[in-house]
């Protein structure tokens, strides 16, 4: 049949042109070509997703954020029990007791924490009871040892108790159905204790982010090693930023790329991608001729380099690197700049990865103890000490604005945020601060 023999028409295969992947459009810079700190931070936050949660042992979830609401399936305590070592009684049987005329009750038995079957309390008698032991049927109060002669066959009671006294009733701590923890809440020792007490051994939480901190710069030498050539310095950032990431709850590796050679830096960074949920580099992102991070990263992923209207911390880089699009924050190299940038950008990103709210620092108000000066047109982060002054939060700057002053940074416990339009703050005026040790 002719029809069947007809040659099949070959559909031309349309060449699929993959669009060159790019990052979403960054926020518009202002007339000076600068981005605000908030706009940059929010842009970066839009580029990362929380890490997927998994079920884990209660203790392994310490410091992590829960991904579920957990309601109690039990009452706590689960049964009425004694709050004291003493005697379980009917309050009515000891109502008339006093120091001058003690009442004597026969002791029908004894019960300790963990004992299971109990005889009911016979009328007009007492049962010796230890803290945490179930209250025998018929008893409604406990007379502590201290109010008795501690007798074994019979007991003299010197003080009355009222019904319910020294009894911890079923459900008086937690009732069944009570939400013990909410999603997004971070597990601490107390909440772990609460869940354990309610019989819960596994929770759904987001894991600790795996963070690699890479310090770059040909001048860097590891602390503990001798500076051999003039111009060398010890690597402060690698340690500082690694510690800051640990303080946020991350699992951290520190790597040093003591080079400004693009080949070396590219290889060092590529080697780290496999084990990282986030990579942080320091150095090599400003305007210098050896700003190697800025040079090589666009070959390895989608990058954004910006100038942010803040001081310190103006040059900032971000990328989604490699096939897995691992987020990478490229911090400037001056130690104070790198630390301030960590607080402004990395901390929120880590908290988003961990699913912890709020992601951003919540500024607190403090009263300037002395005059503060700032450059107009930039958000200035002053290193400062906040202290309590008779219930008032008082803040003073430590040292100058230069971003190499690690001594002052170490002495600070807060950053004062002096906004773009602030030139001077007089003593007694209010300023907003980020507390660094919370
Ligand atoms: P960069 O951003 O690489 O141009 O570095 C700016 C300044 O920070 C230079 O003075 C560097 O020597 C210094 N610096 C860079 N990385 C570190 C580091 N890991 N530790 C201490 N200082 C650093
Ligand atoms: Mg450098």
From TrEMBL:
Xref: Gene3D superfamilies: MoaB/Mog-like domain (3.40.980.10), MoeA, C-terminal, domain IV (2.40.340.10), Molybdopterin biosynthesis moea protein, domain 2 (3.90.105.10), Molybdopterin biosynthesis moea protein, domain 3 (2.170.190.11)
Domain annotation MoaB/Mog: ranges: 212-352
Catalytic activity annotation: adenylyl-molybdopterin + molybdate = Mo-molybdopterin + AMP + H(+)
Chain segments carrying region Disordered: 1-32
Essential cofactor(s): Mg(2+)
Entry keywords, A to Z: Magnesium, Metal-binding, Molybdenum, Molybdenum cofactor biosynthesis, Transferase
CDD domains to which the protein is assigned, alphabetical: MoeA
Pathway: Cofactor biosynthesis; molybdopterin biosynthesis
One Pfam family this sequence matches: MoeA_C
EC number from the UniProt entry: 2.10.1.1
Family: Belongs to the MoeA family.
Main function: Catalyzes the insertion of molybdate into adenylated molybdopterin with the concomitant release of AMP.
PANTHER family membership: GEPHYRIN, MOLYBDOPTERIN BIOSYNTHESIS PROTEIN
Identification of the protein by name: Molybdopterin molybdenumtransferase
Species annotation: Luteococcus peritonei
Organism lineage: Bacteria, Bacillati, Actinomycetota, Actinomycetes, Propionibacteriales
Gene symbol of the encoding locus: glp
């Amino acid at each position: 049949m002719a029809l069947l023999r007809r040659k099949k028409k070959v559909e031309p295969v349309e060449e699929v042109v993959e669009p060159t992947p790019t990052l979403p459009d960054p926020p518009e810079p202002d007339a000076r070509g600068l981005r605000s700190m908030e706009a940059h931070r929010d842009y970066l936050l839009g580029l990362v997703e929380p890490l997927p949660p998994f079920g884990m042992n209660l203790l392994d979830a310490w410091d992590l954020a829960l991904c579920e609401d957990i309601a109690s399936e039990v009452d706590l305590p689960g049964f009425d029990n004694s709050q004291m070592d003493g005697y379980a009684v009917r309050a009515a049987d000891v109502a008339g007791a006093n120091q001058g005329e003690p009442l004597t009750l026969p002791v029908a038995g004894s019960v300790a924490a963990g004992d299971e079957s109990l005889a009911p309390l016979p009328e007009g008698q007492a049962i010796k009871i230890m803290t945490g032991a179930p209250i025998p049927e018929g008893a409604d109060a406990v007379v502590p040892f201290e109010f008795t002669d501690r007798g074994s066959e019979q007991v003299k009671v010197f003080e009355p108790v009222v019904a319910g006294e020294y009894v911890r009733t079923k459900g008086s701590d937690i009732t069944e159905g009570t939400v013990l923890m909410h999603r997004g809440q971070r597990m601490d020792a107390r909440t772990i204790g609460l869940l354990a007490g309610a019989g819960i051994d596994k929770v759904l939480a987001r894991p600790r982010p795996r963070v690699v901190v890479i310090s770059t710069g040909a001048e860097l030498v590891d602390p503990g090693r001798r500076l051999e050539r003039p111009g060398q310095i010890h690597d402060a950032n690698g340690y500082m930023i690694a510690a800051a990431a640990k303080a946020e709850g991350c699992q951290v590796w520190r790597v040093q790329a003591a080079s400004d050679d693009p080949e070396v830096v590219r290889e060092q960074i590529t080697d780290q991608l496999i084990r990282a949920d986030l990579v942080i580099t320091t150095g090599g992102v400003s305007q210098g001729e050896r700003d190697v991070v800025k040079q090589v990263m666009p070959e390895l992923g989608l990058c954004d380099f910006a100038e942010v209207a803040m001081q310190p911390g103006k040059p900032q880089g971000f990328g989604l690197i490699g096939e897995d699009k691992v987020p990478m924050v490229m911090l400037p190299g001056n130690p104070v700049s790198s630390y301030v940038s960590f607080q402004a950008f990395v901390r929120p990103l880590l908290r988003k990865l961990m699913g912890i709210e709020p992601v951003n620092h919540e500024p607190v108000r403090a009263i300037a103890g002395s005059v503060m000066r700032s450059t107009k047109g930039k958000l200035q982060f002053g290193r400062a000490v906040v202290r309590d002054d008779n219930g008032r939060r008082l803040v003073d700057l430590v040292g100058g604005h230069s971003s190499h002053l690690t001594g002052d940074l170490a002495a600070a416990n807060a950053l004062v945020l002096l906004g773009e339009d602030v030139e001077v703050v007089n003593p007694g005026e209010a300023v907003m601060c980020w507390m660094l040790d919370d």
